Amino acid sequence: MKKQFWLDRWAERRIGFHLPDVNPHLRRHWRHLEIPSGAEVLVPLCGKSLDMLWLREQGYRVLGVELSDIALEDFARENLLRPDWVEEGGFRRAAWENLTLLHGDFFHLALEQTRNVQAVYDRAALVALPEEMRKVYARKMACLLQPGTALLLVSMDYPGEQMNGPPFNVSEAEIESLYGDSFDVRLRESVDILARNPQLADKGITRMCEQIWVMRRS
């Protein structure tokens, strides 16, 4: 899956992955990370997620990274923010009070750019990537984070042969394989979402769960 795939999705407004409200898993589980107020939170592949505003409202400094300029322009316009983009470390950067957006490729982030990150929130990054890219993504994440950094991850678990992602199926075994060597990994909750999405059952999907993971960089 190439970068152009996601750029095209934004250009064509095929963004069913975008939630029009704050993710309920974030509201319910963020406290389990025990992150102090004022800490910097990384949101990879952030799109125009309102979760970033919620995190800022809780007293955190938010660092969002996104490939699509359309997504970031939408976010700024819809939230009445006036971006003043500057070039920085191979990215375009815009900042407001306690909110910074980086326009560019997450895989090009340098350790210098994440040196102050104390937590990560990943709702739609890992599940947006095919298997081989997920391996690279998890390794990159481990390289960018200091020991003790917390991570809240939302993944999808369903029979992979029944649907082609994204969002991609990421089993519990794969989560352990991707993160187990570098993070303490705990499954906080598994939520059956098939019952409230009958259109998925109509497509022949027999099981679909959202799984919420709390991790800490070892």
Question: What do you see in this structure?
Answer:
With 218 residues, the protein is an alpha/beta fold. It has a single domain (3-12, 21-217), classed as Rossmann fold (3-Layer(aba) Sandwich). It is 27% helix and 26% strand. Strands 3-4-5-2-1-6-7-9-8 form a 9-stranded mixed beta sheet, with helices on both faces. A hairpin with a 2-residue loop joins strand 3 (86-88) and strand 4. The longest helix is centred in the middle third of the chain and has 14 residues, at 131-144. The two termini are 30 Å apart. The relative contact order is 0.15.
Task: Give the arrangement of secondary structure elements.
Layout: H1 3-11, H2 24-29, E1 40-43, H3 51-57, E2 61-66, H4 69-78, E3 86-88, E4 91-96, E5 99-103, E6 117-122, H5 131-144, E7 150-157, H6 172-179, E8 183-192, H7 198-202, E9 209-217
Parallel strand pairs: 1-2, 1-6, 2-5, 6-7
Antiparallel strand pairs: 3-4, 4-5, 7-9, 8-9
